[in-house]
Amino acid sequence: MAESFKYNGNKGQGGELHQKAGDDYPTMTTAQGCPVHDDQNSLKAGTRGPTTMEDHVMREKIFHFDHERIPERVVHARGYGAHGYFETYESLSDITCADIFQTKGKKTPVFTRFSTVAGNQGSPDLARDVRGFAVKFYTQEGNWDLVGNNIPVFFIQDAIKFPDLIHSAKQEPDRGFPQAQTAHDNFWDFCSLSPESTHMLMWAMSDRAIPRSFRFMEGFGVHTFKLINAKGEMKYVKFHWKPKQGLQSVVWNEALKINGADPDFHRRDLWNAILAGDFPEWELGMQVFDQEFADNFEFDVLDATKLIPEEQVPVKIVGKMVLNKVVDNFFAETEQVAFCTQNIVPGIDFTNDPLLQGRNFSYLDTQLKRLGSTNFTHLPINAPKCPMRHFQQDGHMAMHNPKGRANYEPNSWAGDENNPRACPEHGFKSHHEEVMGEKVRHRSETFADHYSQARQFYISQTETEQMHMRDAFAFELSKVEHLPIRERMVSHLLNVDKSLAEGVAEALGLAEMPEPAEAAMSTRDDLPASDALSILKNAPQTFKGRKLGILVSDDLDGSILENVTAALDSEGAMYEVVAPQIGGVTCDKGKKVDAQQKVDGGPSVLYDAVLLLVSEKGANMLAEKPEAKDFVSDAFAHNKFIGYTQSALPLIKATGLESKMDDGFINLENVSADEFVGSLRNIRFWQR
Ligand code: HDE
């Protein structure tokens, strides 16, 4: 007798016992649980006859397939999520009664989704774009969603402009392109007509918009929020995420090539790091300030196009987030997760930032469209992990259906677990704030300075970063076909920094310099540089979590390979062997070396640094291969460190770089493997 098998997929009532389909496979069933005997042939009248209507197996299979897609997110469609936890460093009970911040060492589960903004779901990861950084904390007093970005300011000051901003950034409506890029007329038309976007444009044209990976970027709550303590006292707060891995970006030419070589570069990176046990961590920081600071600050703290420099209000580190588990199912978790800015918990509250207020409407609304039912909160990824009792009921796909008679309030059916009441002591209380004023459609005068912080951001960058920004503006505007838009944009840049504007104008070949844009307020030149705004000034000084690409051939020097890989292991770094053929090579000691990539599938843009470990014969052979020459010349052009041995010189020569070999080329015959890995801690050789 065949042994019985317990089907462990959809758990129906009463359990399902089917006979096992084979030693290793359970029996396939329909969604109704009916065992299927053949799912590769439809039911036909005769082997060559028409398919019958009664084929419930086929009809159900195709019906379900036809409805697999749900609307993608209108923005942030392309994203990648992971699970983890947040750990509180110290009790913050003096400033907030939020459950997660009460006890030192408390761990709260989280789900985090990173995303690009403009591209559709299948767009490449390395688009020049803002990155979403959304965290759902499953706290003991409800879900708190900190739905942030990797840039601390935003393009617009009022939510009513959001549909216009996004329409302008996404594909143009007549032609349906370009995809996942802002280098087109509509975007720059909108921005150049909305001077409030200038500060954010500085960030978007900086290296922040082409991060090396999600693991190497900061996150920001952007808006000013409120913290409320048990006594009802209020402080303002801005939230920051600081990657313990350090900050790192790629260069633009590299980004373009990564998009071709591996459009999933960022999601693959996160997946691989977590599976390798190299769990990425971010520390949560708070800039906490009071009403007096807000009243005296140069800008309005309700204006999301402004930040507060860390030098003015230091970031207090309050805990860390560790992402340590990839999803089991992309759709169920990453796609169905529904972030809502209005998911807030006692101890945290909103401010009147008009962008935040609009977001509070938009997120709930969009989830209904996307997930199709008010019951999206019943999906495991969205459901709170604390008790949840209310009288909301029914609706499509209701999964949370309490027993009992009480479904209204007030009622007199006491003593029932499913008969909750509001709790005056512990319930969420909005911070009391006096609000009065005329009903107006006016932008506050305090929001009027659009250029001063843009200038502050620019002067805070290193020369290399400033050059990247000039190039980015020039690249994007070069794709704008309508010349007045280019000029209008340069006229705004003139209000930010003259040399930036001139550099961009020159790269665009503008015949004449336009007049500076008319400004509601003139640019302040008294705001000092803020080092915290630069990536390179805060370089990580570690190669941990980074990856070396090792280009090999037969007869490579096996002892160097062994020493370098051992040094990388002790640094906590990764490597991949790139060989002329995927079967790998044999080293000079006769040992087999496995390859993870074939040279045309593993270009150097996928690595943080490269090592050319080839025999002379191998170098001569690779010198004939364009993809091997690109491996070297791209690494050079992208300011990467290039390790080599004398025998690699024929390949280097073939790329024309022999006369340009600088200190970024490191000869492994002259330095130890540890010293080589030590140099890699500088990440890039920017002097080049
Ligand atoms: Fe969003 N935004 N947003 N946004 N946003 C969405 O919600 C919206 C803004 C951000 O991984 C949508 O579930 C408005 C700022 C992230 O699932 C939508 C305004 C910041 C994500 C929406 C903004 C963000 C979204 C689309 C102007 C940084 C992805 C799908 C007032 C602080 C979350 C969805 C995820 C997603 C509306 C501006 C961050 C339509 C109206 C500022 C990280 O509701």
Walk me through the structure:
The structure is a single chain. The protein is of the alpha+beta class and 688 residues long. Among the domains are: 68 residues, Cytochrome C Oxidase, Chain J; 252 residues, Beta Barrel (Catalase HpII,  Chain A, domain 1), CATH 2.40.180.10; 142 residues, Rossmann fold. The chain is 26% helix and 16% strand. Strands 3, 4, 5, 6, 7, 8, 9, 10, 11 and 12 form a 10-stranded antiparallel sheet that branches. Strands 17-14-13-18-19-20 form a 6-stranded parallel sheet, with helices on both faces. Helix 3 crosses helix 12 and helix 14 crosses helix 18. The longest helix has 18 residues. The chain is globular and about 90 Å long. It starts with a strand and ends in an 8-residue tail after the last helix. The structure holds CIS-heme D hydroxychlorin gamma-spirolactone 17R, 18S. CIS-heme D hydroxychlorin gamma-spirolactone 17R, 18S (HDE) binds next to strand 4, strand 5, strand 6 and helix 9.
> Structural class of the secondary elements?
alpha+beta
CATH superfamily of the domain at 79-171 and 220-378, please? Catalase core domain
Which CATH C-level class of the domain at 79-171 and 220-378 is it? Mainly Beta
Main pleated-sheet profile: 10 strands, antiparallel
Strand content: 15-25%
**How would you describe the shape?**
globular
Outline the low-pLDDT stretches.
1-16
What is the alpha-carbon Rg in Å? 29 Å
Bound compounds, each kind once, are: CIS-heme D hydroxychlorin gamma-spirolactone 17R, 18S
Active site: 76, 149
Catalytic activity: 2 H2O2 = O2 + 2 H2O
Family: Belongs to the catalase family. HPII subfamily.
Protein name: Catalase
